[in-house]
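Hello again,

I reread your note about wanting to compare the complex against the isolated chains. To keep things tidy I'm splitting this into two emails, and this first one only covers the full assembly. Below are the input lines as submitted, including protein chains and any nucleic acid or small-molecule components. They are followed by the predicted structure of everything together. The single-chain runs will come separately.
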Amino acid sequence: MNKSSDIVLEVKDLGVSFEDQEAIGKIDLSVARGEFIAILGPSGCGKSTLLNVLSGLLPPTRGTVSVEGRRMYGPESEAPHVGYVFQEHRLLPWRSVKKNLELVLAASSVSRQLWDDKINDILEILHISRYKDSWPLRLSGGERQRVSIARALLVEPSYVMMDEPFSTLDELTARTLRQELIDIWQRTGATIVFVTHSIREATFLADRIIFLTRGPANVDDSYSVPIGRPRDYEDPRIGQVEAEIVKRVLGVWELEKT
Amino acid sequence: MVVWIILSIIVRPWIPTPVDTVIAMYRALGSGEFYQDLLLTLWRVLSAFAGATVVGSVLGILVGLSRRADAFFRPLLSIGLAVPDPVYIIFTILALGIGEQAGFVALTIAITPFVTNIVRSSVQARDLTLDEMVQVYRIPFWEAFWANLVPQLVPALLTAVRNSFALSWKLVVVVEALGQPEGLGAAIFQSFRLLRMREMLALAILFTILMELIERGALGRLERRLLRWRA
Ligand SMILES: Nc1ncnc2c1ncn2[C@@H]1O[C@H](COP(=O)(O)OP(=O)(O)OP(=O)(O)O)[C@@H](O)[C@H]1O
Ligand SMILES: [Mg+2]
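Full-complex prediction:
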């Protein structure tokens, strides 16, 4: 259990600007292996932009991103393997669930003999084995998001990013999936960077919460959630922590406006 | 039908009655010449249609993906679309003579801009969020091309295929009438010159029916198969 010394993701002095508009001011961040961190910030502060940088889609204007000790976006540096659960499922609707998973496996470093077992295992864990050969559009929103989570975990990623993955689901489905996400995270030991603007969701899920200021984002604070696991979504302690966070965050988010 | 019967009575020698036409159709179906012409024409339709579909798809994808190709081809494309088809046909025949290639080239050139245009706009309207997904998971270019881009173009390609097929079988008649000694279009034109209206109409109707059958049957089936993933 030497977590703190095993840093998977390190972001230093990160800045992103679009043309003349600044989207990210300055972000420093480091994530340990197996950690579940939530990134919390008001709408439009640059959360998705941050994930785009971390996923290899968007070279930053300033600063560095290192994954497992290697520079991302450096000259001749290879992009790391990462998983990304988008707000929408982003499955290819003309491929069955299995074929969608095989597509990303083919581009990963997982050897072909292991594919079938890995696919069966992950679908089993996510309770969607029976949809293995279904078309994605035949599934419900929650089931599609499960497939999307399966896809992200399958590629043996350095870390998995999630951008408000449950925000389009109904509350009951979202709750079930949050609970299951925690179970899967504990079973697989994955490192997760979870973006949300729901304080309760962040409190329930994360080891640590990173607060971003109103855009252009700066890291305002990092906060370790002082509640042991397993947690209960209705636990009054979560309510307390939530109220506490609301108090300190609202000050910053509101004040920044003026 | 009623209009036809009335017209055939009024404009007597020039518009044949339905009965006469059916008899002529029957006779045509019994003659070997008809099948020879038909086969030749069918071959021309299919080869020009295939040529235009392939060339148009490739061009359309290129223009849709690359801004530079778009800047270069866009003006050509709008000219290509604006020129009336018979003009192409006449010019190609003038340029290449009335050989077998001339017909093929003329048809292909006339149809390609349509296909290119449909494919281009579909490429540009593709789902960019899927492009991001493909990039995050580091899917290699050609893999992503076949797994992500091409399936998104299927509806447009089917439309293009439909249109280019319909266009090519209509234009082939013109091409053959203008520049080819054999084929169904030539036969129709021949009947026209000899004022054999019955035969002309019979051939035209038979040809139309056949093409409609191909279009509905083969293309319809293809469409159902390719789009079966839709919820
Ligand atoms: N490609 C782009 N070009 C120009 N500006 C952009 C681009 N992408 C994002 N922005 C701007 O950057 C800022 C941050 O956007 P971003 O999508 O990262 O916010 P967010 O925190 O994810 O918001 P939300 O909570 O609503 O999802 C916004 O002001 C947005 O308009
Ligand atoms: Mg966002």
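For quick reference: Residues A 47-48, 163 surround magnesium ion (ligand 2) (CB under 6 Å).

B.
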